[in-house]
Amino acid sequence: MSYPYQIKSLEAYHEAYKQSVETPDNFWGDIASHFFWRRKWDSVLEWNFTEPKVEWFKGARLNITENCLDRHLDTLANRPAIIWEPNDPAEHHRVLTYKDLHYKVCQFANVLKNNGVKKGDRVCIYMGMIPELAIAVLACARIGAIHSVIFGGFSAQSIADRLIDANAEYIVTCDGAFRGQKDIPLKSVIDDALIGCRFVKRVIVCTRTRTPVSMIKGRDVWWEDEIKKIETLGMTTCPAEEMDAEDPLFILYTSGSTGKPKGVVHACAGYMIYTNYTFVNVFQYKPGDIHFCTADIGWITGHSYIVYGPLSAGATTLMFEGVPTWPDAGRFWEIVDKYKVNILYTAPTAIRSLMGFGLGPLQGKKLSSLKVLGTVGEPINEEAWHWYDEHVGKKKCPIVDTWWQTETGGMLISNMAGITPSRPGWATLPLPGVQPLLVDENGKEITEADEDGVFKGNLCIQAPWPATIRTTYGDHERCRKNYFSTYPNLYFTGDGALKDKDGNYRITGRVDDVLNVSGHRIGTAEVENAINMHAGVVESAVVGYPHEIKGQGIYAYVISQTTHGDESLIRKDILQTVTRIIGPIAKPDKIQFVKGLPKTRSGKIMRRILRKIAEGETENLGDTSTLLDPGVVDDIKSGKV
Ligand code: PRX
After folding, report:
1. 543 with 641: CB under 8 angstroms?
2. 539 neighbors 561 (Cβ within 8 angstroms)
3. Ligand 1 pocket check for 3: Cβ under 6 Å
4. Nearest to 528 by CA among 609, 582, 596
5. Confidence of residue 256 (pLDDT cuts 50, 70, 90)
6. Separation of first and last alpha carbons in the chain
7. What pLDDT score does 565 carry?
8. Angle, vertex CA 161, rays to CA 265 and CA 530, nearest 5
């Protein structure tokens, strides 16, 4: 497999960028011509950001799995597509070649069909990181069903919310999932979720942990039994469903600043082209390289850079079931040496947490196969960047700092390994096709730099890239309001950024009420709603504060109903409630019981003040004169956790 559109020099980057902006239709049309289409497009791009309407490769027909699997079979049939490293290093690893993966995807696609799944149906996938997860995802795409993967750490309530929103009648899950020393009972969580979701017709359960499960007659079936049925029926192939370029490929739920998580929808053609293009260019993937993205497929990073980007490029993608610190903090390095990993793509949180273990776990590890390192999900602090560079990359591997979002489908701002310069803490230059703009609160372009020559503003994008969010499932107006209405004719990212005079960007973090905890997005409103479900809670306010490992920690100010009693008990109960409503990732790191919250006369909580107190600032809290009762602030300050 060759990549004629792979950029090989800094000049070529500038040239590609120029073309992508001046003649986007030619630029993306050329790239798309290297893929497999059942029918070519009538137009490359039609769009407006007011509705919004974004249509790439309109009129084209394709199936993404033919691009990820079938088209590689002539030349790459025996190349490993997925290498799977189990949680327990004593267990055997698995290798699925392109031929194997194609076979298994077709097989499971037939299982889905045999269970009534049709094109356009939503299938919820709630599994651990085993190859069957990737197989289930691809099998949905094969038959044109819309997958909605839910991260294995979400609670029954969160699953139910998503099932209802997507009206998903089919579920694929496992008995359980191994993560470090934990054995997470996935099927039993699904059972709880389904108590209020009677519309679910079928649950397909794959065996992994052998945790006892209860199977409901008529609803639940075993993956393995269903495969046997398919074999008995002699169904060994499964023709790929012909999809329209703009048909939805998947829904992935993500948190916003208000309300419940939104179902971000990506479309077949644009998403395929863009994840492939960014994978090949940012990592400078060379045929035969082993690519290890440590994310979970439950997040967008896993969708784009474990499954679709690498497989559409005929790459070898490594899937890891476990956690970086089990059985010890040398696990990533062991995996790198074991499989001679060439590209390692991980989150700053993981780097910071591994840094905390010192250099011991790196001792005796060669890491000599590594060529490219990457980070994603949150700003990387310079200390972590240098540690990664020195101790993992041995100062010979470029580090790509990739900035993007669930809504953007693929990377938007990032250096390209060894092609465009890297700079600690900076995502650097926009990728071809991406036109960022920094604006002030009124949407006016920032044209004045500070004394250091740096521009500072809210980060927007001026025109669509192929993997632009198309809609939020079932509620297009919500999509418009959230992303396209803050500033007319711009996609608003929700992030703040700096730009230097050479056009390099540094992302400073969210400017809305969204937290980024260990690289995972959590809405403050979501956590507050969960805390408020606790019977003893009157009201709460949640803010982020700097956390050494997680990047941001969750700080909750809680007004409790009881003025007496054991605080530590209520604290535990609240944590339990949040775990039950959202999942353990949303558990507050700190809970402070307060008598009142700083509110304006119109009843709005002034989070700015709470944020400052959580950060340890007690003096410069800004203007507090508009507060209904300024006295609560002193009270809160004196009780800071
Ligand atoms: O704040 C930015 C941060 O993560 C947010 C997107 O989160 P999510 O949709 O969960 O996707 C994470 C994986 C793509 C962004 O709004 N973010 C992501 N990458 C970076 C980052 N912040 C700084 N630097 C990055 N490289």
Report:
1. no
2. no
3. no
4. 582
5. confident
6. 57
7. 67
8. 120
Mean pLDDT of all residues in 188-206: 97
Residue pointed to by tokens 């009206």: 167
64 lines ligand 1 (CB under 6 A): no
For residue 509, the ligand 1 atom closest to its alpha carbon is 1
Q: Are 463 and 22 in contact (CB under 8 A)?
A: no
Q: What single-letter DSSP state applies at residue 451?
A: T
- Number of CB atoms found within 10 A of residue 137's CB: 27
| 3-state SS, residue 378 | coil
* Main-chain dihedrals φ then ψ at residue 583, nearest 5 degrees: 145, 165
Question: Model confidence at 563, in pLDDT bands (50, 70, 90)?
Answer: low
- Mean pLDDT along residues 299-319: 98
Full set of structural domains in the chain with CATH: 98-241 (3.40.50.980), 514-638 (3.30.300.30)
Residue nearest to atom 25 of ligand 1 (CA): 403
Three-state DSSP at 403 gives strand
Q: What does the alpha-carbon distance between residue 213 and residue 321 come to, in Å, rounded to a whole number?
A: 21
* pLDDT per residue as tens digits for the range 43-97: 999 999 999 999 999 999 999 999 999 999 999 999 999 999 999 999 999 999 9
Size of the chain, expressed as the number of residues it contains? 641
Geometric angle at alpha carbon 55, from 51 and 59, rounded to 5°: 140
* CB within 8 Å of 175: residues ≥ 6 apart: 185, 186, 187, 205, 206, 207, 208, 209, 210, 211, 213
pLDDT of residue 626: 83
Asked whether 206 and 130 are in contact (CB, 8 A), the reply is yes
239 CB contacts (<8 Å, ≥6 apart)? none
Sign of the dihedral defined by the CA atoms of residues 507, 513, 515, 521, in that order: negative
**What proportion of the chain, given as a percentage, has pLDDT over 90?**
92
Ligand 1 touching residue 402 (CB < 6 A): yes
Give the residue, by CA position, lying nearest to ligand 1 atom 22.
378
DSSP result, 531-570: HHTSTTEEEEEEEEEEETTTEEEEEEEEEES-SSS-HHHH
Does the beta carbon of 552 lie inside 6 Å of ligand 1? Answer: no
Angle at 132 between CA 131 and CA 134, to 5 degrees: 70
Q: Atom 6 in ligand 1: which residue has the minimum CA distance?
A: 405
Q: Kindly tell me the number of DSSP H helices and DSSP E strands found in the chain.
A: 20, 30
Pairwise CA distance, residues 265 & 252, whole Å = 7
According to the model, what pLDDT value does residue 630 have? Answer: 85
Cα dihedral 306, 308, 309, 310, rounded to 10, equals: 60
Residue 177, pLDDT > 90, answer yes
Beta carbon of 521 within 6 Å of any ligand 1 atom? yes
pLDDT, tens only, 344-383:
999 999 999 999 999 999 999 999 999 999 999 999 999 9
- Gap between the Cα atoms of 183 and 181, Å rounded: 7
Ligand 1 midpoint to CA 174 (Å) = 29
Residue 480 has pLDDT above 80, yes or no: yes
Q: pLDDT of 116-171, one tens digit each?
A: 999 999 999 999 999 999 999 999 999 999 999 999 999 999 999 999 999 999 99
Q: HEC string of 302-348?
A: HHHHHHHHHHHCCCEEEEECCCCCCCCCCHHHHHHHHHCCCEEEECH
Q: Pick the residue whose CA is nearest to atom 21 on ligand 1.
A: 378
